[in-house]
Amino acid sequence: MSFLTSLRIGASGLSAQRTRVDLATSNLANADTTRGPDGQPYRRLDPILEAVPFDQALGAAAPAGTAAVRIAGIAADPEPGRRIHSPSHPDADADGFVTLPNVDPIHEVVNLMSASRSYEANATAIETLKGMAQRALDIAR
Predict the structure, then answer these.
(1) Which of 85, 91, 2 lies closest to 40, judged by CA?
(2) What is the pLDDT of residues 98-108, one digit of tens each?
(3) Which of 96, 68, 92 is nearest to 12 (CA)?
(4) Which residue ranges does the record assign to the Flagellar basal body rod protein N-terminal domain (predicted)?
């Protein structure tokens, strides 16, 4: 596998994990948002990750099975939100119930930690690759 192929794979991982972090923080920020632009409670968002074979993009330059990752889309979680009785809330229905977003803060913090650790692992892999390339250049001198 070439140096640039490895860098592209690592960069795709960094990009995917950054998107996961962005969505987890958005979900946490909107955990109490009872009314969005459409008038409905906020819906939790999840990224859809997809493996992309590098041999399609690079021809024979990449070994078989080498894959990068990309965000295929972002999906709203279809689970209904939790309903609480709060007749004085401005978004309460006729029965006095308010539907809260379907965001579980604990789940989002775990997603955030997982994405953060995965980002760190990809960054470490890229740093290791850069160090190997630098050593190869030093040997060539």
Answers:
(1) 91
(2) 999 999 999 99
(3) 68
(4) 7-35
Q: Which residues make Cβ contacts (< 8 Å) with residue 131, sequence separation at least 6?
A: none
CA angle (86 as vertex; 82, 89 as ends), nearest 5: 105
Verdict on whether the full-model pTM lies above 0.85: no
* Domain limits, the chain: 3-140
Tokens, residue 28: 């946490």
**Which stretches of the chain drop beneath a pLDDT of 50?**
none
> Coil, strand, or helix at residue 67?
strand
Q: Kindly report the backbone phi and psi dihedral angles of residue 75, in degrees, each rounded to the nearest multiple of 5, phi listed first.
A: -115, 140
* Cβ proximity of 28 and 108 under 8 Å: yes
What is the CB neighbour count within 10 angstroms for residue 88? 7
Residue position matching structure tokens 């009872």: 34
